Amino acid sequence: MAAAPRRLLLPLLLPLAWAAGCAASLGGGWAAGALPEEERCTVERADASLTFPRFLQRFAFSRPVIIRGATDNSVFQALCTKDKLLGAFGDRLVRLSTANTYSYRKVDVPFQEYVEHLLKPQDPAALGSDTLYFFGDNNFTEWGPLFQKYVPPPFRIPGTRGAYSFGIAGVGSGVPFHWHGPGYSEVIFGRKRWFLYPPDKTPHFHPNETTLAWLHHTYPTLPPGERPLECTIHPGEVLYFPDRWWHATLNLDTSVFISTFLG
Ligand SMILES: O=C(O)CCC(=O)C(=O)O
Predict the structure, then answer these.
(1) Quick check: helix, strand or coil at residue 81?
(2) Which of 12, 85, 137, 204 has the fewest CB atoms within 10 Å, i.e. is most exposed?
């Protein structure tokens, strides 16, 4: 094929370069690839008009909800770009946990090493117990100034306080099914698909299998009545899960995220 003259290629390539630059800034410099999004969303959604009494009556103790537009975390988001976080925390140690249900093994690495060498797309053949995930176990003295800029979700369950768990993880990674007390999850960059079952419906899963493997092998075999509630959350939305609800996550992009546990 004859090479196109440069003066013809340039006008074609410039918009592409501009679009790539925009995509990078939209993803905070983190985006490295993407899994397709499932349109189906079986979790109820609410907007900023949701009131505290309505939250308590309909969701707090009985079902998950995704609340859109209740808080503005644009300031926090601007601090969570790849460049900003590497500049502020590159030499600090972060604690990684294996991405299995009981998160047994912990490994400490400098944040920069995590970002440059370990933050990768999920290997579909790897076990969760051999996959390292950066989430929780945050050093609040070192990361405190960042977390102070996070605007937490609007509603608390009476008698509880919020505790943050911050994470950054590669495309296709996630946490397999587990449960604990109530809480919220918000993505700052990226998209995260959530799968949820009520406390009395134990999901079919193996605790050392990744969510990606579960999605490929188990999810397609589930009869409609056995499927989890599910939805993908985006920046600007926050998912609430009640006490003891089973949940598993799948990052559709390289994602920066924060949970607020109520305890
Ligand atoms: O965000 C994630 O990938 C894990 C979140 C989670 O499991 C939790 O908030 O309990």
Answers:
(1) coil
(2) 12
Cβ 182 under 6 angstroms from ligand 1: no
Position 13 in a domain: no
Question: Domain tally for the chain?
Answer: 1
Residue 43 to residues 134, 150, 240, 250, Cα–Cα distance (Å): 26, 24, 10, 16
CA of residue 175 to ligand 1 center, whole Å: 6
In-domain check, residue 9: no
pTM above 0.85, yes or no: yes
Pocket test for ligand 1, best of 185, 211, 251, 253 (most atoms within 8 A of CB): 185
Burial class (CB in 10 A: 0-12, 13-18, 19+), 188: buried
Pocket test for ligand 1, best of 138, 165, 184, 231 (most atoms within 8 A of CB): 165
Domain CATH for 193: 2.60.120.650
List the domain range (segments joined by +) for residue 125. Answer: 34-262
Ligand 1 contact, 100 CB (< 6 A): no
Q: Is 255 part of a structural domain of the chain?
A: yes
